[in-house]
Design brief:
Elements (H helix, E strand, L loop, with lengths): L1 H14 L12 E2 L1 H12 L15 H17 L12 H10 L9 E2 L15 H17 L1 H8 L5 H16 L8 H31 L7 H7 L10 H4 L4 E6 L6 H10 L4 E5 L2 H13 L4 E4 L4 E2 L12 E2 L5 E2 L2 E5 L8 E6 L11 H10 L2 E8 L4 H9 L5 E5 L5 E4 L15 E4 L3 H15 L2 E5 L5 H12 L5 E6 L13 E4 L3 E3 L4 E3 L2 H8 L11 E6 L5 H8 L9 E3 L3 H8 L7 H11 L6 E3 L3 H9 L7 H8 L8 H15 L20 H23 L7 H20 L5 E2 L5 E2 L13 H7 L3
Parallel strand pairs: 3-11, 3-12, 4-9, 4-10, 5-9, 10-11, 13-20, 14-16, 14-17, 15-16, 17-20, 21-22
Antiparallel strand pairs: 1-2, 5-6, 7-8, 18-19, 23-24
Helix pairs in contact: 1-2, 2-3, 5-7, 5-8, 16-25, 20-21, 23-24, 24-25
């Protein structure tokens, strides 16, 4: 079986050109196959030629050996020693990484041929990729299975998929033209292209073979998503003034929009993150503006008896009227506003969450609507607003502080790290190891910020880094640092410019690079010039290219079907599971060119977890969009118990579900356990607002949530401070990546943990 898979990999690699991608995913290969892939990658023509290779010079042999070693290391094989004295060291090297020998199989992804940067992804690449994916489409068992849901047999699929593929290659399918697929590949890459090909296959059948699928015309009608602006008739009856504030990071665009918000009678701020919503809430209250906070897990209103803030009026029942509401964009209230601010408008094209920005843009009932974000969103927003007979006023801003891209990297040396640096890592597992290495090599303490860390802990870690009087000089962070927290960063250092996206390792986008790099040298932070660089010399040229390139214009906005649409569709397939039902809806939906269906991957995993419970379609719809990561076992356990309480109509007490471990976390694994429990508690508070009669222990959930946050923060704060030794290294620090903590009873008592 293994040889068959490896042979398939090699045959596919032989057929693929320099722009192609391997049509297999997740297969295992041995050392010999990895070497063959190396030959085809660096010598694609010579690998297929017969006869002896030409003799190489000594310099060429050295270059080839280095490239070969890099490829072997990429697939998890250490290069063999060239002398017998190094054999023991080589074996220890492999054993330390869980490798028993050079023949151990490893997992490879489908992108052995390097995926290009966004700026290099052109029509030629799109044409070759389309041809490759069409060939895979006809032989893909998953595609056949999904077509089988609609009653398409194997014989019919073979016949009509062949006709469809020929029509595409002949230019007969208008929406599968290579030039128009470039934005799709930038946004969704291969997964998005494969799904779009299947969607267009159903459109082709509707036009040329409607008899293949029963009630095809009706199914396409009830899944018609071409006119989402018609879903919000209340906003269509208003004359809205729409103003876009666009510019790079740290240009003051959001500041000007918030200044306008302060002086309105009824306003709302829509944030991409709970951290940002809380920051604006705090800023408004500090400025004397009565402000409420509304997120999926938290709702706060001003206590007018304890603060100097006064309400702008009272209702007929005597309830105080709050001037501004700061909310996460998914929690946008349905009411009339004078001024509304939508932040990070470029996320309207986000694969997972873009629907929330599209919904806010189309349905917000505000006399004045301010959109803040990147210039790349301007053409798309203008096109959408034209369909609603609305004009867009664009205000452009320049960066307030100076930003420089270094011409030199840190040459791979940790000793080049200095105070005020933010080291960006795209793997949570590596953050603690890098933190430990920096502390050991430099003697400076590091704060950490990453996505799965509770927002409250991120704020506290940011405060430690920003405080010049603390002994935290360096920040080690994931891409979560790109937005949401004000940081006094002198220099951003990218450990790498590639990131695993679930399907393979890809270059990060131009937009991501510029947004993260732009965090250096924040205005009014005391830093005159911000600097961006890389750890390795091999990445510096790509960084300079990305920082000097404007992100490509957005081409489409994300949408999702409404509850009523899913319920109507479910009546046509009463015996189909909800996860399968949603997949079928996405496959056959009719979507306009300037919109796309947001990814259902995360929601599908949640839907499968609760499949066997007797829930209604409406209840399932709400649960799949809850803040759940179904890959975490503890969160999954909480989800099952919460969903069962909803299904069987019984009250659910948080104390019956959540039991925090009776210890302080001492390494990244135990910290991750507390992070999972925190997400389980957060899910309870979110559900308490959507199912208030089921989840009634709200006060208890906030108390245990605070206790969990304090425990995590104690694990982060109580690391032993490393000290430089005379040799330039450190002593007293941790050498294995584990966290050390101060077992002081006073600290634990102050935090209320024990």
């Amino acid at each position: 079986m293994q040889r068959t898979l490896a042979a398939g990999v090699l045959r596919s690699a032989t057929r693929c050109s320099a722009y192609s991608v391997l049509p297999c995913k997740g297969h295992t290969i041995d050392r010999r196959t990895a070497l063959d892939l190396f030959r085809r990658q660096y010598h694609p023509t010579a690998a297929c030629e017969r006869g002896a290779p030409k003799k190489k010079s000594k310099k060429q042999q050295i270059i080839t050996k280095n490239k070969r070693d890099n490829v072997l290391e990429k697939y998890g094989f250490a290069s063999p020693p060239e002398d017998s004295q190094s054999t023991d060291k080589f074996n220890r090297y492999n054993r330390a990484r869980g490798r028993d020998g050079p023949q151990k199989n490893v997992r490879v992804t489908f992108d052995e041929m390097k995926w290009p940067q966004d700026a290099d992804l052109d029509e030629k690449f799109a044409a070759k990729t389309l041809k490759s994916r069409l060939g895979r489409f006809q032989a893909n068992q998953d595609v056949r299975r999904r077509c089988g849901y609609f009653g398409i047999g194997d014989g019919e699929f073979v016949e009509w998929s062949g006709k469809f593929a020929r029509a595409v290659l002949a230019g007969g399918i208008e929406r599968l033209v290579p030039k128009d697929l470039v934005p799709l590949l930038i946004r969704s890459r291969l997964e998005g292209l494969d799904n779009f090909i299947l969607n267009q296959f159903f459109a082709y059948l509707e036009r040329d073979a409607p008899h293949i699928v029963k009630d095809m015309k009706y199914l396409r009608e009830i899944t018609d998503l071409r006119f989402p602006h018609e879903w919000a008739p209340g906003a269509r009856t208003m004359k809205r003034r729409i103003i876009m504030h666009v510019g790079p990071t740290n240009s003051g665009k959001t500041y000007h929009a918030l200044e306008r918000l302060k002086h309105c009678q009824a306003g709302v701020y829509c944030s991409p993150l709970r951290l940002l919503a809380h920051e604006v809430y705090t800023r408004m209250m500090s400025a004397g503006v009565s402000c409420g906070l509304l997120t999926g897990e938290d709702r706060r209103y001003p206590d007018y008896t304890l603060s100097d803030v006064k309400p702008i009026g009272y209702t007929s029942t005597g309830t105080p009227i709050t001037q501004v509401t700061s909310c996460t964009i998914e929690m946008l209230p349905v009411k009339l506003f004078d001024v509304a601010v939508i932040d990070e408008i470029q996320m309207i094209s986000d694969r997972q969450r873009g629907w929330a920005w599209t919904s806010a843009l189309l349905s917000l009932r505000a006399r004045e609507l301010h959109l803040c974000g990147e210039p790349s969103a301007v053409p798309l927003v203008k096109r959408i607003c034209e369909t609603m007979d609305e004009e867009v006023e664009v205000r452009e801003y320049s960066r307030l502080g100076k930003l420089e891209v270094s011409s030199r990297s840190l040459e791979g040396s940790w000793r080049n790290i200095r105070a005020g640096d933010c080291v960006v890592v795209f793997s949570r597992a590596e953050i603690y190891a890098i933190k430990n290495t920096i502390e050991k090599k430099t003697g400076m303490r590091c704060a950490v910020i990453y996505g799965s860390l509770p927002p409250e802990s991120r704020v506290k870690q940011a405060a430690l880094f920003n405080d010049p009087n603390s002994d935290y000089d360096v920040l080690v962070a994931s891409d979560a640092v790109g937005m949401g927290i004000n940081l006094s960063i002198n220099r951003v250092v990218f450990m790498t410019l590639e990131k695993f996206d679930g399907g393979g390792v890809r270059p990060i986008s131009v937009s991501q690079t510029r947004q993260i790099g732009g965090r250096a040298g924040r205005f009014n932070s005391g830093v005159n010039v911000g600097t961006v660089t890389t750890m390795q010399p091999s990445d510096i040229r790509a960084l300079q290219s990305s920082m000097g390139t404007m992100p490509p214009n957005l081409d489409a906005a994300g949408i999702k079907p409404t509850t009523s649409m899913i319920e109507m569709f479910s009546h046509q397939f009463p015996n189909v599971s909800f996860s399968q039902l949603w997949s079928m809806f996405c496959d056959i939906a009719n979507v306009d060119d300037q919109y796309f269906m947001c990814s259902f991957d995360d929601q599908e995993s949640v839907a499968k977890e609760i499949e066997k419970l007797p829930l209604t379609v409406s209840e399932r719809y709400q649960l799949i969009y809850a803040p759940v990561n179904a890959r975490d076992p503890i969160v999954k356990q909480c989800l099952h118990k919460y969903a069962a309480a909803i299904a069987y109509k019984r009250e659910c007490n948080i104390m019956d579900v959540v039991t925090l471990p009776p210890y302080i976390p001492t390494d990244r694994e135990t910290i991750h356990i507390f992070e999972q429990w925190h997400r389980g508690i957060t899910l309870y508070t979110w559900l308490s607002y959507h199912f208030p009669t089921t989840f009634t222990a709200v006060d208890e959930s906030f108390a245990i949530k605070e206790k969990c946050e304090n425990t995590i923060q104690m694990g982060l704060l109580s690391l032993r401070k490393p000290h430089r030794d005379n040799a330039g290294g450190t002593t007293g620090g941790n050498t294995d990546g584990d966290l050390k903590y101060d077992d002081s009873q006073s600290i634990r008592k102050a935090l209320g943990i024990y």
